Structure formats: C-alpha cells, structure tokens
Amino acid sequence: MEDKRKKDLGVAVKKNEDFSEWYVQVVTRAGLADYSPVKGCMIIKPWGYAIWEKIQQYLNKKFKEKGVSNAYFPLLIPKSILEKEQEHVEGFVPEVAWVTRGGEKELEEPLAVRPTSETIMYATFSKWIRSHRDLPLKINQWANVVRWETKSTKLFLRTREFLWQEGHTVHETKEEAEVMVKEMLDTYEEMAKDLLAIAVIKGKKTDSEKFAGADYTTTIEGIMPDMKALQMGTSHMLGQNFAKAYDIKFLSRDEKEQYAWQTSWGVSTRLIGALIMVHGDDYGLVLPPAVAPVQVVIVPIWFKNNKEEVLQYAKEIESLLKDKYEVLLDDRDSHTPGYKFNEWELKGVPLRIEIGGREAESKTSVVFRRDTREKVTVSLDKLQEIIASLLTDIQHNLYQKSKQFLENSIKEVKDYEELKEIISLKKGAVKAYWCGEEECEERIKEDTGATPRIIAGKGKGKCVVCGQDATKIIIYAKAY
Amino acid sequence: MEDKRKKDLGVAVKKNEDFSEWYVQVVTRAGLADYSPVKGCMIIKPWGYAIWEKIQQYLNKKFKEKGVSNAYFPLLIPKSILEKEQEHVEGFVPEVAWVTRGGEKELEEPLAVRPTSETIMYATFSKWIRSHRDLPLKINQWANVVRWETKSTKLFLRTREFLWQEGHTVHETKEEAEVMVKEMLDTYEEMAKDLLAIAVIKGKKTDSEKFAGADYTTTIEGIMPDMKALQMGTSHMLGQNFAKAYDIKFLSRDEKEQYAWQTSWGVSTRLIGALIMVHGDDYGLVLPPAVAPVQVVIVPIWFKNNKEEVLQYAKEIESLLKDKYEVLLDDRDSHTPGYKFNEWELKGVPLRIEIGGREAESKTSVVFRRDTREKVTVSLDKLQEIIASLLTDIQHNLYQKSKQFLENSIKEVKDYEELKEIISLKKGAVKAYWCGEEECEERIKEDTGATPRIIAGKGKGKCVVCGQDATKIIIYAKAY
Q1: Hey, which residues 112-171 in chain A have their CB within 8 Å of chain B?
Q2: Whether residue A406 has pLDDT greater than 90
Q3: What's the confidence (pLDDT) of residue A89?
Q4: Across the interface, which of A2, A37, A70 has its CB nearest the CB of B133?
Q5: Is A332 touching B (CB cutoff 8 A)?
Q6: Separation CA A152–CA A159 (nearest Å)
Q7: Has this prediction a pTM greater than 0.90?
Q8: Which fold has domain A294-392?
Q9: Closest to A203 measured CA to CA, from A215, A186, A180
Q10: Tell me, what's the pLDDT at B89?
Q11: A109-135, pLDDT tens digit by residue?
C-alpha cells in the first residue's frame, strides 16, 4: 500500500498534454473527491469539503450583511407542486429523480427529489406573505440537489447530485428585485476574485440560455484552460412568473393586492472544479490563500540526534503564526519530509515552511511558495511579515494570471469562418455581434458546439452569422 | 395581516395545561419551523436554522479537536449496497423511500434515499483502507436523511426528513473503537450541558433497543416535562459487523490481514425539540445563551421628540457589546416597543435591554432576563460586567433547573404496580432491576408503553416484572 501510495503521489500527466486526465488525477489524488458506487454521484473527500466550507463561510458573511437568512426546505417535492409553473416544469422534469415508494408502499403521488427549490419554497412563501410589511423576504438554503444527468459525468463539474446554495427573495417592486439580482451577481463576482482568485465574464444570458421560468438570467463564467466556459454562478430575475403560479400576493402600501417580484441565485460545488482547472499545474492543485483550508504547512526535517530541537523550533513557529493563519505542523513520524513536500504540493497549500537542524540553530526557516515554486530563507524575526506579504502576493498573483488569461482568451472576430476556427482549434472564446435571432445562435451551436455565454455589451455591427444589423455583442464558447 | 400577527404573537395555551398544543404553538409562532406541503416533512425557518448552526459550530470545533474531518457521501444508495449487512437492512428497509425513476426512465436498480450512511460510506472505506497506516479514519457528514415514518409526525421530533450529523470511524483495535464510542457520547453529554443547558441520562441500551447492525448502542436522553424520554444522541459500537459485510480489511502492524473495528454516532435537529420542551414557558421559547442566535436584543423606546437621542444611545450600547456577544438592535419603525418585547420573549432571547429617554439621559438601561423575567436597572459603566454575569447565570440557572427536574423525575420502584402507576400517571421515569430477559421488557412495553431507555447501573436485586434475580438497573420511560 505504501508503495502504491508513493506512485499515486503526484500527477502522472501534464496539464497541457492531457487536460482531462490531468483534471481527474488532481481531483482524486489530492483527496478532493472520489467516485462512488452510485453511478454519476461523487464523494466529496475531506480536503474538497474543507474548501467548500471556506466558500460557505465567505458567502454566509455576505448573505448576513444583505439581510439574507438561512433556512431549510424539504428535499422531496410533490409532483403537483413541481408542475405549477409551466416553463419551469418543462425545463426540469426531464432530469428529475422520482421517489415512488415509501417503506413497502407505493406512494399516491410521486415525489421529486429537488432539482432546485423554487416550487416548494414558493408554495410556502404564499402562506407567509400577506402585506408589504412581510417584504422583502430573503431566504437562502445550503442543500443537496439531484438532476438526473444523461450526459457523461465529471467530478465536481457534472454529477447527478451536487451541493449548492440557493437564495430566494421576494420584493414589493420590480426595481427592488432587479437591484437584488445585480447585487448577488456582484457578490459572486467578488467571491470569484477575492476568494477564488478567478477572473470572470459577467452579464445577462440570451433567452435561449435563461433559467426555466425566469424573466432573465445573469451569470458569471470563467474560461477554462481548454477554452470552454464554466458557469460559476447565476442570479435570476423571476419577475412575477412564479408569484402568479404560486399565488404570492401582498397588500401594498396603497392597500392594493399585488403579485410579488422574485429573484433566485446560486453557486455550487462546481466552483471547486473551477479552482482546480484555473490554478492547478503539473504538480497538482494550487490554492489561493483565501480559500485554502491550510495556508501554511510546517514540515520539520529531523535526524535522530536533533529531533527534539527541530520539533521544538517548529512548534515555536507554529504558535507564532497560528492565531493569524490556518497553520498545520506536519509532525507525522510515518512519512519522510520528501513525501510530505509532495503531498502538500499536490494538495496546493500556498506556503510551506521547511525546518531542519540548521534552521533551528540559526533561527531561520526556508519558505516555499506553491504558485511560483520559489524558495526563500527567512529569519525568525521577519517571518510573520514575510508570510503576510507572500500570502497577499500569491492571492494577487493568481488573480492577475487568471485575469490575463481571460483577457487573452476572448477573441473578437470579423467573420464566421474565423469564429469557427477559433472554437474548433480551442484558441479562445469568441466575441461577436448577434442580430437577436435564435436561428443564428442555433447555427453556431450546430456548426461548432459553442453557445452564447453572455451578452457582453451593446453597439452597432453586423451579426457574425447572418450579416444582418446587430446591436448585441455576445461571447460564445463551448461550455461545461 | 397586522391584526392576525398580533393575535399569533404569543402562546395561547399554558405549558402545563396542554403540553402538546403548547409545543406546536411555540415552534410555529417563534418562527422555528413550519409545516410543509409535503406530508411529514418540515420547513426549518430562519430562527430554528440559526440554532442548528450554533449546534454545528459547537460540534465542528469538538470534531476537529478529535481529528474528525467533514466530508460528503451520496444521498442515494443502490439497493444491493444497502442490503449487505443483514441486521441493518431489516432495521431500516421498512422505512426507506425509494427512487425508482430518473428523468423519463425506470431505473434498473432502485436507489434508497439514505436513512443513514453506514452502507454507502463503508462500501467506499473498503477501497480507502489497506494498511494500519490508513487508520484511524474519522469522517463526519452534515446531511439530510429520510425515514418513511408511518407514526404521526411532530415538528423537529419525528419527521420524514431531518438534518443531522453522522460520524463514522474505523480503527485497528476493539479497544480503540470502544474509547471512541465513549468519547463521542461524552462529547454529546457535554454539548447537552454546556450548549443546550440540558441534563441527561447516559448509558448503554439493552439489545432490543440497539442500532440495527451494532454490537451495542450508547445514548444520552433527556426527560421531557410530560415524562417521556427523548433520545438526544447515540454512539454505536459497530464491532466488526459492517467490516465483514463490506470487506474493510487492513494489514496490521504485525503484517496480518484483519477486519477493522468501527463506530458511528450522531445527533439531529431533534435537539431543537428538546430545547423547546425543556426550557420553554408560557411566554414561549427560553434559549440558553450559549445556543441563542441573538443573546442580547436592544429595544429603543422613543417619542417623536427624542428619537435621535434614544437611537444614538442605543447604538452606543450596541457597539459596547457587539464584539463579545450576539447583539441585535431592533430599530424597526414598523412595530411598537410592546410588540417587540413580546416577539423577542416568544423567540426566547436571553436578555433584553430597554432604552427610553430617561435611560438615555441618565446613561442607564433596563435589563430584562428571559428565564426569570426579572428586570434590573444598570448604569452604563457597569453594563458589560452585568451582561456577562447575567448570561453566565442564565446558562447555569437553566441547567440547574433541568438537572433538578431530571433527578426528581427518576423514581425507584419496588414493585410492578408502582411502575405501572408512575408511567400511566406521567409521574416520572422509572428505575428498576431487570433480569435480562426480553420477555420482561416486552411485558412492560405492552402494559405501559414504556421501553428500557438505558442500563443505568449494576447491582443485585429482583426483576421488577418477574421477580427473578437481576443485576441490571434500567431506566424505563415512554419515548418520543
């Protein structure tokens, strides 16, 4: 077993040679996730789950600032409730898993395992809301959802069950709801930057790509190294569609009964997939400090004759840093320092402090940064300061690289041939004018597999497909 | 609506007059939980969920100290995997909800919605564990589980879906596993005391009441005001039963292949039910400070002519306290101070600070404690000190009351008639000798509805049912 482990400790293919295999190896070997005995479902292992908890902590703080409260709604949704909003049903029913038996009995009505919770929540919101004094209502839930994917699954990116948060708000006016939609999308963009160090494109979806039942959908998406877009968070303006279907009415300030305005928004464990793809390298995962479950790992290197002294010094350094940072002292006897170096590199820990007999004597340490793989020797009295500045620098550096990559990846094209070439050769995502006709979106999809990711802006130009006058600038890419 | 609300604001029945109706009113009116459109499933509302998050925070810290890592395993379990451990299957299958359809297709193999995760986790642990170096493995997950109850459901206490944590550990030796079982039960007892201020009985279950598939089960249980016992946490010694069914073997230190030893343990949202029943009073919920989402609510009482001054002073007090405590300044314009008083009492907030013009002028405040409903006037310079000591005192006071109640509730009996009387008149739980025969347990159950809750000790006596020699002392009670 020990032997097998050594072989597995590291990634056996290069990121730019076989990206897909590289991804699977990083996910499984860094202990982020594993395949399960249930087809299409994954196990989130401790290291992956700890990253998810960091995302939860970050967002819970933001939600609280915005007056959003966490709650929990049932997993199982009666068929009749799921089916009240027509567009929504049509979008989701093809991928619903159904509970049809409870104990030994057939159920009278099948229950859907929630694919998303608009329907079950809003059926209840209609009971909770009577007056404008009950508004705004802002609820979030952290939950598992199930979507019976028929496409091939991929750890974190497409699985039949995943974890997410789904926020649902109810407002008096359209304007207020639209502000909410924007605020949450901005929050997601901030999270992508400040926590995950990922630069994203941000904007509205075209109608063909919107959430089933929404007036419109907004999104943040990253461009991955294989030039496919990854949807990283969505914020939907639901208008009054669900309010009408689920009868969410309130008595307004001028004493009139009105339908409420709603939004919903969410991010999922797929964000972990983005982290891996964007920052990882041939040595494994590279974690931005803000989202790293361990920011600094201390690896002591001892011999029989100096173990106590080295460990003592390692503990001194640990206590110097542990109040400010997530620090781990890896004092396992069972593994060599070399093994530990590899393991923590694979797991993407931003900084490693190496301490041997020489360092203990001279009151120094060797600090290794994961992103650039550079080493520097630091004296104890400067250590705190250097650690602080290195962590800031790594976070910044990773974001800048991501931003640069994103900017370089988006290619403006003049004609359709160029669009097709860029997509098929994986040279980038494409920015081009669109006339507004679904036919042209469809044509691109058929010819290249790319879909409109966002409406990136407005202007005056010609549709890249049909050549007609166009006012919308679209970013097209294949998508995960 | 405003009128309806006022009517609902408070509990309309007394706790000792109609305990069951009182419970439902506290749960729903204090905003802890609500009924859902799905039969037998509940909605955990923000106030209830915030209490659950406090429990999560407390336990996550303890788990981390014990080397337990959080992870996440699939919701859906293939029938063939669920059925590998015979006793376990027999215990759980009658209450499993089955997914039989995915999208438009019948599944080849039905999938169980997890009632608990031993089976799915251990099928994977067998892949992860090869050597003693991989042990101990200590995994916890926070998750939803579904058990298709046929008994009537009750918010928090018995619902078809509930939230819980389930810990699962794997060890080299029986001794190590037994230490783990005990440590976790002790942790739960500590939590009951330090967080929930609830005194519990603690001990092993008799075989008839153990977890399906375990060697033995240990439990903490509270005695509720209606003298029914509530199981609040369990810790199971699984022995090698699951290891054998799921083939969890490892190469031991002396290079022999051995089956591993396992434990599992959990607590659920039912704890919130215990909190309500144990501490609540005729005014609603009473929260121990350690688990209160808001520990101190500040209610300003202003008139038109002094609003600014009063609010200013209220904010001063808020910033004085907010670094150390969970403080909420309730400055809503839409509600009167009287309404706010009632609402926060109903929700059980431990301390209320009332501030009017007089207080603002004299730099004092009136502090109201929820448990005893006493008021005291405090000068600003003493406020921090008084708040600290009141919160400590409330936590202590609630625990002492609970402890006293528990001690008074457990009645030692000499004969069977006395046992039957105590149970049927709801005068207490009963402590009595048991010979060890299942028949005698069964007889008590048939005659009174009470079941053996724990083995409370050993000694020499006569079985309260059959009069034979007996060495085990049992606590019997009806149970939720």
Answers
A1: 113, 120, 123-124, 127, 130-131, 133-134, 139, 143-144, 146, 148, 150, 160-161, 163
A2: yes
A3: 87
A4: A2
A5: no
A6: 9
A7: yes
A8: Rossmann fold (3.40.50)
A9: A186
A10: 87
A11: 999 999 999 999 999 999 999 999 999
- Would the pLDDT of A27 be above 80? yes
Tell me which chain B residues have a C-beta less than 8 angstroms from the C-beta of A95.
Answer: 103
- Among candidates A187, A168, A185, which has minimal Cα distance to A262? A168
Task: Report ipTM (2 d.p.).
Answer: 0.96
**Looking at this protein, which amino acid is placed at residue B84?**
K
H or E element at residue B384: helix B380-409
Q: Give the distance from CA A223 to its chain's centroid.
A: 13
Residue B5 has pLDDT above 70, yes or no: no
**Cβ neighbours of residue B286 closer than 8 Å, sequence gap 6 or more:** B279, B280, B348, B350, B370, B371, B398
- Residue-level pLDDT at A368: 98
Nearest chain A residue to B45, by CA: A71
Nearest chain A Cα distance for residue B342, angstroms: 18
Closest CB to B77: pick one of A38, A74, A94. Answer: A38
pLDDT of residue A459 exceeding 80:
yes
B473 torsion bin: left (phi>0), alpha (psi -120 to 50), beta (else): beta
Q: CB-CB: which of B73, B75, B78 is closest to A146?
A: B75
pLDDT tens digits along B183-226: 999 999 999 999 999 999 999 999 999 999 999 999 999 999 99
Q: What is the pLDDT of residue A198?
A: 98
Question: What's the rounded mean pLDDT across residues A43-55?
Answer: 98
Helix (H, G, I), strand (E, B) or coil at B152: coil
Min Cα separation A77/chain B (Å):
7
What pLDDT sits at residue B10?
Answer: 85
Considering the segment(s) B294-394 as one domain, its CATH architecture is: 3-Layer(aba) Sandwich (3.40)
Architecture, CATH, for domain A411-477: 2-Layer Sandwich (3.30)
**Predicted confidence (pLDDT) at residue A176 exceeds the cutoff of 90:** yes
* Cα nearest neighbour of B252 on chain A: A1
CA distance B47 to chain A (A): 8
Domain ranges in chain A? 10-279, 294-392, 411-477
| Highest CATH level, class, for A10-279 | alpha beta
State the Cα–Cα distance between residues B466 and B462, nearest whole angstrom.
Answer: 8
- Residue A96 has a pLDDT of 96
What pLDDT is recorded for position A7? Answer: 53
- A2/B contact by beta carbon, under 8 A: yes
pLDDT at res. A2:
40
For A71, the closest of B44, B95, B134 (CB atoms) is B44
| Structure tokens, A291 | 């989202």
Largest CA distance in chain B: 84
Which of 50-89 (B) contact A at CB < 8 A?
50, 52-53, 69-78, 81
Considering the domain B412-477 in this protein, what is its CATH number? 3.30.110.30
How many residues does this entry show for chain B? 480
A404 at B interface, C-beta within 8 A: no
Q: Regarding the domain with residue range B2-279, which homologous superfamily does it belong to in the CATH classification?
A: Bira Bifunctional Protein; Domain 2 (3.30.930.10)
Cα(A453)–Cα(A220) distance, rounded to whole angstroms? Answer: 9
Closest Cα of chain A to B53: distance in Å? 9
Q: Are strands A105-113 and A76-78 parallel, antiparallel or unpaired?
A: antiparallel
Q: Which residue among B38, B76, B77 sits closest to A77, beta carbon to beta carbon?
A: B38
